Predict the structure.
Amino acid sequence: MKQTAMKHTLLVCMLAASPLAAKPEFRAGTARVDITPDGPIWMSGYANRDHPSEGVLASLYAKALALDDGKGTRVVILTTDLIGLPRTITDAVSARAMKQYGLERSGILFNSSHTHTGPVVRENLSTMYDLSAQEDARLKEYAEKLTGKLFTVLGAALGNLAPAQLEFGQSRAGFAINRREFTPDGVKLGLAPKGPVDHSVPVLAVRGQDGKFKAVLFGYACHNTTLAHYMISADYAGYAQAAVEKAHPGAQAMFLLLCGGDQNPNPRRTDALAEQHGQALAASVEQVLALARREPVRAPIKAAYQVTTLRFAVHTREQFEKEAKDANVFKARRAKQMLAQYAERRERRSTPYPVQAIRFHKDLTILALGGEVVVDYALRAKKENPNERLVVAGYSNDVMCYIPSLRVLKEGGYEANDSMVYYGMPGPFAEDVEETIFQAIRGVLKRVGVK
């Protein structure tokens, strides 16, 4: 039996590396750029940090995958080992790319891994740190350089287009756990083993004419919060990408963070656990990369992009005047921002919200949502589209704050209320938040042909 298993494994490996039998429908290009900060920098994700980074455990990258369907449509998927990209950066990069390369905004997808051991990326999480002018200038300089690097890597991927074939498959990984724990004092960040999760691991494999993997794009719905130290790192997602690339020399592995707003890795808090989770995720990807686990993804590509508007619950100047006296420094900081907006008669009543869909024939649709999206959105989108092979990503195109479902909003807790303080938002969303987003979801899906 061992000999039979060895022969089968050998056959699968030979087939996976063999030249493509069918004429490739696509052209694909890849590129990467190191975005590791040069020297100490303030790190994002945890409000209790009190000094800049102390070194580099693993480099951070921005990676681009460009795809041309041969029928006039090109898209670029750009992933980053960062806490999140604000709209100021993604809009700037997109505008340059549209002008220089003739891309449509709907064909440019930005996604961040949400590592909590990376740099602060302005203007996100504006009230989390009270920095000196010099420290803030350092962060703005990083953001400016990052913007240039993202445009460069996007162009480099477009410049490397070559014949390719796309294939898709799914596996599972079980280390994510719902973190919304119900206690006598309300919903707290903890462990909720019975809470909703999405353990799927979608994998889009790109093979060149030689049959070898050129790119492997894979996703998972889980915060990158295994680590909480002062060393720069991409957390478990970085370990997973490195493991896939080691197993397939020449391939570019790219991580897409799905709807993991209320999901944490379990257990966590050591380098060894981050590597363990990364290896587990990479092993799930490897299961898909066996030839029998993948199905062809065909042309054409259709893409749609829409910016809708999410309303906040009613708020008043008086509530922020009271909050400004709060002993909680973060609330006081948020209140100062809100009162300044009231004084200038530009108080924030809503926020723009991007929704994007990229569909490959009838074989695969990537739905990309802005913000820290809780898992309910992925589960509902898949339920509403049972016949569609759907990958639902959060943390895409703009990470402005958490995006709670109506259920989470009514339950309260960090994702619904407390997190808004750190993001400098005026408070919780109005109760139509979920339906407003799903109206936009249905709109972009309809435009790419999903009925």
In short: Residues 2-298+391-398 form one domain. Residues 133-158 form the longest helix (26 residues). Confidence is low (pLDDT under 50) at residues 1-17.
